[in-house]
TrEMBL record:
Source organism superkingdom: Eukaryota
Protein's UniProt name: Kelch-like protein 4
Pfam families per the UniProt record, alphabetical: Kelch_KLHDC2_KLHL20_DRC7
BP term (GO), one: response to endoplasmic reticulum stress
Organism, as annotated: Noccaea caerulescens
Record PANTHER family: INFLUENZA VIRUS NS1A-BINDING PROTEIN (PTHR46034:SF7), PTHR46034
InterPro entries, A to Z: Kelch-typ_b-propeller (IPR015915), Kelch_1 (IPR006652), NRP-like (IPR044832)
Length: 163
């Protein structure tokens, strides 16, 4: 490990993803409030740069890349779990509202397989309501429930390996 520059804003409960050689860090919590801010790390320059902020604050959410755009999915806005989705287009530097998921969820995992986003498990925010459902998003088709596992999951990660 090699230490590099710190982000412009301290944050945890942040979502991050790689896109075209840069690392994006979006939302999170700074010990005082949930954030809507976002940053991009350029490993060639070893520097962080602020990018446009999301419309809404969120932490404990997911961030994935589909069709050259970053999707910030679900999470907690400081008062409740949300089902909302925001989409960042690096070419225009703007965020737009996406179609919300069917369920409120944060602390979930998300992965992209081929041309679909899968959001797995999470927490609905009601007592011990840990979700065992999986939602799938495909452009032009929206969100649909595709599966349920026998055990609910939250606070975990997912990865896709393509050989």
């Amino acid at each position: 490990w090699i230490r590099t520059r710190s982000m412009e804003q301290k944050r945890f409960a942040v979502a991050s993803s790689e896109h075209n050689g840069s690392i994006y860090a979006v939302g999170g919590f700074d010990e005082n409030e949930y954030l809507n801010t976002a940053e991009r790390f350029d490993p060639r320059e070893h520097s962080w740069m602020r990018i446009a902020s999301m419309k809404s604050r969120r932490g404990c959410h997911s961030l994935v890349v589909l069709n050259e755009k970053l999707y910030a999915i679900g999470g907690y806005d400081g008062s409740a779990m949300v089902s909302s989705v925001e989409i960042y287009d690096p070419r225009t530097g703007t965020w737009t509202a996406g179609e919300p998921m069917k369920e409120l969820r944060g602390y979930s995992a998300a992965a992209v397989v081929k041309d679909s986003i899968y959001v797995i498990g999470g927490y609905k925010g009601e007592g011990e309501d840990i979700l065992d459902t999986v939602e799938c998003f495909k452009e032009g088709e929206g969100w649909k429930n595709v599966a349920a596992s026998s055990i609910g999951r939250r606070c975990f990660l997912s990865a896709v390996v393509t050989l």
